[in-house]
Amino acid sequence: MLQVFGLPLHPLVVHAVVVLVPLAVVTGIVVACWPAARRRYGWAVLVLTGMALVSIPLATSSGEELEHNIAGSDLIRAHAHLGDQLLVFVAALFATLLAVLLLDRRRDRLPRWPALLAAVLVVASATVSAVQVVRIGDSGARAAWSDTRYVQSASGSEEDDDG
């Protein structure tokens, strides 16, 4: 199992997904809905979305490697199942965002409806991607921390912790 400083790679790599996918979601919606932002930042947002897309297989493959080295549970299997779905949703975000950018370049020669449809599809795929990232994160936290029990200090008061 690959490790970095003694830690499994998956909890480290997954942070790229946790940061890049929501950034791609928010900026993708802005670019799809605001023509001035699209013309100025559209291609940079597409690159960001591509980076998010590439980070997903890194996270899922490191997660599969970790899964083979720990005791399996229904929570881990549910987390892995949700994680496997994210690539499709972010790929749809990338493809629809690319369509918005390409249609914008031909806006003077095409009817308006294809660009509007592409923008709606960006918002839809971004929304699904955001929801899926939250679901994956929640299931991963439950899988990692479900057996952890917190105990109160011996005195039972918070004042003792302060001083």
TrEMBL record:
What taxonomic classification does the UniProt entry list for its organism?
Answer: Bacteria, Bacillati, Actinomycetota, Actinomycetes, Pseudonocardiales
Residues in domain DUF2231? Answer: 6-148
Locate the transmembrane regions by residue number. 12-34, 41-59, 86-103, 115-134
Q: Does the keyword Protein biosynthesis apply?
A: no
Which UniProt key words apply to this protein?
Answer: Membrane, Transmembrane, Transmembrane helix
Protein's name in the database: DUF2231 domain-containing protein
Q: Which InterPro entries match?
A: DUF2231_TM
Record's keyword annotation contains Transmembrane: yes
One Pfam family from the record: DUF2231
Task: Tell me which species this is from.
Answer: Actinokineospora bangkokensis
Q: Superkingdom of the source? A: Bacteria
